[in-house]
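Give me the 3D structure for DMT family transporter.
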Amino acid sequence: MDQGKLKGHAALWVANIIWGLNAPIGKSVLVSAANPGGVSPFAMSVYRMVGAALLFWGASLLLPRERVTRRDILLLFFASLFGIQLNQMLFLWGLSLTSPIDTSIIATIVPVLTMLLATLFLREPITWLKAGGVFLGCAGAVLLILVSQHGTGHTSSVKGDVLCIISAISYATYLTAFRDVIVRYSPVTVMKWMFLFAAIVAVGIYYRPLVEVDYAALTPRTWGGIAFVVVGATFISYLMVPIAQRYLRPTVVSMYNYVQPLVAVLFTVAIGLDTFGPTKGFAALCVFVGVWLVTKSKSRAQLEAEQAQKKAAEAEQSQKSK
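Predicted structure for DMT family transporter (322 residues):
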């Protein structure tokens, strides 16, 4: 494996380990019956967008300036719309309406959608190896979610499930339709524009929930959780994604979604809130094998190169036989 791909895989491990930890940590910050002093998911959405925008623009001041064309700024606005705004805002809205188990299972369709959309936008082939890896990883992630869920006290909601499905479609669209503009600039440049647009929209939509938060009543633990979500699960993780997009195919990038429930389970086991038995071990193995199979599947460029070599060999053989 070349250095670029190693860098891409390392970036995805960092992002998805943090996102896996974000599930239990972020949930502890949100307002609920058990945590009446928390913040609303809509206020948290604003913290993420505005906080990340400030961090990315601050980081850009320390790096060489990149000129972004007007056309690409427009493309980055739509990348922000699909990759951040619709993805994050609809997910949080859906999570507030439906059960955590529904949202977790719906999130596993992202690699399936990405594989399908990659054939539309990037003309990437769906090989048996790739399809097998995607569905094996999906099965492992769903099994892990099902055996790890305890009584949540939440009921399903058709509206919430639909919102989460639209969120998943939005992120898969971002990974495939906007890859060209994402890899054209540095990760910091890409994300500073995407989060600027997201922050403006988030403040405009969620201004009221933002000002309704009783900031004086927030505990240091809640502030610490908010800091983790903004700095870790937003700034650092979203910085890693365009690095991975530069070196890896969209389906490979999306496959790391299946690592998140595994990280969440290992975290709850580590703090004594869950156990790790044979069933979870088998589910984890399915996830890892699925990711490996997709990584090993051939890209369009590889298949075209093989086809060209085959034609060249046939032409050479034809010349010799004359």
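The chain has one domain: 3-112+154-273. Let me know if you want a second pass.
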